[in-house]
Amino acid sequence: MTVTVVLTASIVLQLMAAVVALFLIRTTGLRSPWVLLSVAMVLQAFRRYLTLQLWLSVGQRGEGYLSQGIVSLLIALLMLGAVLLIRPLFEEITSRRREAEQVAARFRAMFSDHGAVMLLLDATTGTIVEANRGAAHYYGFSEMELVGRRLRDFAAADDTTSSASAVPTRQLTASGESVVESQCTDLVLDGHHYVYAVLTDVTARMIAEKRFTEAADELESLVEELQESNVLLEELNNELHDRDEMRVRFLGAMSHELRTPLGAIIGFADVLQGGLAGDLNEEQRKQIGLIYESGRHVMHIVEEMLDIARIDSGHMELGQELYSLGDVIERAVQLLAPARASKSVEVSVEGTADVGEILGDPCRAEQVVLNMLSNALKYTDEGSVTISAHREPTRVVVSVKDTGCGIAACDCDRVFDDYYRVTTKGSHTATGAGLGLAVSRRLARLMGGDITVESALGAGSTFTFALPVR
Prior knowledge:
It is a single chain. By secondary structure, the chain is α+β, with helices and mostly antiparallel strands. It folds into four domains: about 1-110; about 115-200, PAS domain (Beta-Lactamase); about 215-315, Orthogonal Bundle (Helix Hairpins), CATH 1.10.287; about 320-470, 2-Layer Sandwich (Heat Shock Protein 90), CATH 3.30.565. The protein contains eleven helices and twelve strands. The protein has helices at about 1-30, 30-55, 65-110, 135-140, 145, 205-275, 280-315, 325-335, 335-340, 360-380, 435-445, and strands at about 115-120, 130, 170-175, 175-190, 190-200, 320-325, 345-350, 355-360, 380-390, 395-400, 450-455, 460-470. It has a five-stranded antiparallel beta sheet with strand order 2-1-5-4-3.
């Protein structure tokens, strides 16, 4: 009975050792040695089985079977123990092999397969020991063709890098001459010195920097020219300002000088017209009348020139009082009654009674209205002139609409310029120096308002005068 148990236990242990050996195939990845060992252990178990059958066939009698069974059991125990003890060693070996494979894979990803240009150089000779795919693509050679070449062989003719440097700055690459920057690291592997170099092509950056420098120099030159131009413009502006001051002073002085003799001429003509210096015949009365009208006309021009001089010099003072804009309009219409008497023009007034009172300078407001109405009559030979007024929440608006010759679109903004006169058909009969509307717009804006015009050639004009309500 003891021999049977011992032999059976040795068979089971031998088979267990065979199973553990087969399991090590999966753990270590080594198939052949463990298969052979497993087969050997199975055969050993089969041998123990034959011994057990022989023991049973002799009626479980005989000498030496117990000692054989014990030896077989010990051998099975030792083999199972050996397999179990060697398993952690092989697992560690396998683990380290896998780690080595992972490191190799990472190295391939970081070096061999990386798109950047990476080289491993012999520190003594400058020979390429290892090159990655990025380097092969950059230089136009395969990785194996690069190995053994000196990196200095790729230096361009105009490279000025010191021969002591492992990496030349200007190199001949697959795309032509290129400029490179390098990051080098010294390595010691197995007692040998190497240089690990990572190259970056900076040709495009160098070209961009050169262009930027040229553009910056050009911009600096332009800035200097602009500064010189600004200085010149400032000098010209000062000169123009001085000339404008001289013009204003000249106009003021000339106007004052002209007013005295003009006043005397108009006064003497009025005396002669009144018969205070004696009776005049019809022809003399006619000529004196022409002198009087011409004097008044010139005096009006002088007054306009004086107004421009005062406004431009900032010496125009405005009165502040409550007045009826409707009364101002009615008075302007009455003053121009002689001017419309010789024309077939109907003048009508609308809405003036509803405007009410406003705060401002009634004399200057009347001057603007007179100029607007006078221009409408001047450029309207027949038809009608309508002057209307209405009040809005923040302003009062006076409009003068005529059916005259009209103004071309290109002239609508220019009619407010100094000395500008419209030269449309029929305007050749109009008199004046072209200052009326220029003075009117200056006065309107000085009073916080403005004058605008809407017109079309041959369709009449509408001038609008707006004043703020304070």
